[in-house]
# Entry
Amino acid sequence: MKPADALEAPLAERLRPRTLDEVIGQQHLLGPGKPLRAAFESGQPHSMILWGPPGVGKTTLARLMADAFDALFIPISAVLGGVKDIRDAVEQAQQARHRGGLLGGAQRTIVFVDEVHRFNKAQQDAFLPHVESGLFTFIGATTENPSFEVNSALLSRATVHVLQSLSDEDLRVMLERGRKLLEAPPLSEAATVRLIAYADGDARRLLNTFENVARMVGEVTEIDEPLLERSLGEQLRRYDKGGEQFYDTISALHKSVRGSDPDAALYWFVRMVDGGVDPRYIARRMVRMANEDIGLADPRALRLALDAAETYERLGSPEGELALAQAIVYLAVAPKSNAVYAAYNAVRAFVKQDVTRPVPLRLRNAPTRLMKQLDYGKGYRYAHDEAGGFAAGENYFPDGMAAQRFYEPVPRGLEIRIGERLQELRRLNEESNKT
# Structure
């Protein structure tokens, strides 16, 4: 293997594609006739948001677009930058346009904002007039849903392209490219599978991790799994990310919460974090637990799970993990109910096998004169005008369909009171139907 040069760029940077054909993955965007391929071939770049997980090529695509259009490329990090960086980018773009005018042509500028969701509303708004005027093409990269994290005004001026995690086959190709560049020993199949699982679809993580291994192993004929583990130590636990052990462990965490055992739940939580699982994945599963296994027995559980997820997003690891641990303990000790979950599944099954029934006229909205003439909304009883705010005896199901009972609250937590309320409402319905 070549001796390591401490001043060399990381392997992921050295392997960054120089042409579009060198890009691995994202064929749903880059294949023949696909949106980004068409953008490259059109000769007319457009403002866009590249949304996808880390290490899938967002920065690479932005740089390739600048090269393809011979554009000035101005990168901004929303994590480290601010309004001054935006002003500097505008000034550089104006200077580039002026230089292009003097030379008889207009030089394009691409402003690339990494982690654009980190910019606040005012910072994002600062791009709008320049995108509108065509001073530069805006390309934002984000790992977060742009519908929630990017201003609607900026979003309306940019096309969102969704990038996907790289497949195992994509990562194999990339790993072999990196191995050849480093002139490193081959990897055994078990070591390859393990390293790809650890990368979790992130090319940068795969290549930089492999580079660390290649620097440590010395002169060997093959990098096998035990050597991989010894080289990475704490970086690589006995954790089959995405494999059977991964799903077994998240299952154990979920069942511990459902079984109201906070100690076991904390144990499996720490096992997952220690094994390299993204805590944001665990946070998403916690939100699912709050809905599926606790539900209306304690509605505060969902809010606490969401708050914990948001806290982790703000603090990251390791500080944010404490918020997740706190929420897990709460979910475990909270009263349990799957009544809404069961009711929802029952309704889905019912609707799937039932015919499509029309909405009764009395329950339809009547925003126009014609609809009122057709008796839309006629006979509807406004519950707030009824005694107790309840239209006793009213039927809200389609006409000709027997009333159904899908939701049956359990005698635990808040659902005790919900059940009592439902019993009283049903009694009033029965009395009204008798008269």
